[in-house]
Amino acid sequence: MLISGFDVRWRTFVIAAFAAFPALIATMIVWAFAGQLALVMIPIVEGGAFWLVESRQRNGLHLRQYQAMADRRKATTGRFYCCGVEIDPSRSEFGMIMANTVPVPGRGSGPRNTPEPETRQELLDTTFGSPTGPRRKSNAVPAGARR
After folding, report:
1. Pair 17, 63 in one domain
2. CB burial class (10 A; 0-12, 13-18, 19+) of residue 125?
3. Is the Cβ–Cβ distance between 106 and 112 less than 8 Å?
4. Looking at residue 60, what DSSP letter applies?
5. Strands (E), 9-134
6. 111-132 pLDDT tens trace
7. Of 39-48, 70-79, 91-100, 122-131, which has the strongest mean pLDDT?
8. What is the pTM of this model?
9. Which residues constitute the domain of residue 48?
C-alpha cells in the first residue's frame, strides 16, 4: 500500500489507523495540563501500539506481546494457556518424533575395529584418502619443541 509516496505494509497501516483514535484521546486529555507539549502523546501511543502488536517475546514461543499478556492474565494456578488455548499438562505425552543423529560406522560407543588416528593429517587421509598414497611418520621435531 502506498501512502504519500511511502510503501507501507497493510498490517502497519491497520495498526496506525486503529492507534490514531486512542492517541488523539490521550492528546486531548494531556492538552488540558501541558498545552502543545501534549502532541508528544501521539508518537508515544502509536509506538506503544506497534510494540504490543508487532514485537514478539525474546524467549519461549516468541508470541506477540499482546498474546503473552492475555495468556498471563487468564492463567491461574494449575492452568496454562498458549495463544489463548488452555493446555492440560496431565494429558501430555512424551515421545520421539525423529532421531536427530545418524550412527557412523566405526565411530561410536560400540567396539572399534580401526585405531584412532594420531594426527590431523592421518584423520584426513583415512577419511578422504591420500592423493600420494599412505604417509609415513616423520621424525622431524616441530618448530619450538625441545628434544
Report:
1. no
2. middle
3. yes
4. T
5. 80-82, 85-87
6. 555 556 566 666 666 666 555 5
7. 39-48
8. 0.48
9. 1-54
